[in-house]
Amino acid sequence: MATSLMSGLIASGHSPQQIWVSDTTPAILQAHRDNLNVNVSPDNLKIVQEAEVVVLAVKPQVLREVSLQIAPAIKQKEALVVSIAAGISQTSLALWLGGNTAIVRCMPNTPALVLTGATALHANPNVNDEQKDLAENILRAVGISLWVDDEGELDAVTAVSGSGPAYFFLMMEAMEQAAVDMGLTEHTARLLVQQTALGAAKIALESAESPTQLRERVTSPGGTTQKAIETFQQNGFAELVSKALSAARERSIEMSKQLGAD
Ligand SMILES: NC(=O)c1ccc[n+]([C@@H]2O[C@H](COP(=O)([O-])OP(=O)(O)OC[C@H]3O[C@@H](n4cnc5c(N)ncnc54)[C@H](OP(=O)(O)O)[C@@H]3O)[C@@H](O)[C@H]2O)c1
User: What is the reported pLDDT for 261?
Assistant: First the structure.
């Protein structure tokens, strides 16, 4: 995720020399220096000492250790902290970094890797408008970014867009299998499904109409699409999707409790 963010920022015109990156593995740092021309150091505290914005992109399990390590420098610089770690609450971050720290917590998703991500952000009361713009600009380098008013909404965001790419892969997987079962080759089935998913997403993004209107527009009465849609609906498709997303949201809440300090 950090590599995607850096690549996105550089591609959108930011100088690589403004970016400092730290990691525990020397080979990763070397690769960042060679590939992106960013500044590197194995010392978290050193890079934070000069930073205006610190993006925390380590696994949630190591965030406590890293936060406690950099807390004195964050406090001294009054730097903005942007955390992309899933499931770590602002209460936990504030406890580790210091109560007055300006913190933006984000939930990005994997399409950020191809600069088509969707990120929701939530700011604590210590974040000023300029810092909000900064955080939004960083995440916008890898896709769209939206603010949520209540931190609790990030659990729903996790269930919708965080885990969402996998739901579409599941649909693609099932359509591909059905196509093969009907006699198409795997290659043909895959290409048809992939391009259809891309086309549908493009139409949905570019149109002002709702998914319901778009679906109705391509469903002729008595035609093939109607037959398929009726089969989905009669078998509880919408209820199943709702149940799946609720289960993901519950799991997100549960994991936050296990990972955090609050
Ligand atoms: N991937 C996603 O789709 C996604 C979506 C939403 C949110 N996130 C969040 O994004 C964060 C990063 O995810 P990721 O998939 O990019 O993880 P990742 O590939 O494991 O990247 C984390 C990097 O942090 C480095 N690191 C570990 N300990 C460190 C320390 N003490 N100091 C400095 N660097 C350290 C790791 O280095 P070594 O492994 O070499 O030690 C690794 O290069 C996670 O918190 C995750 O919850 C990810």
Answer: 67
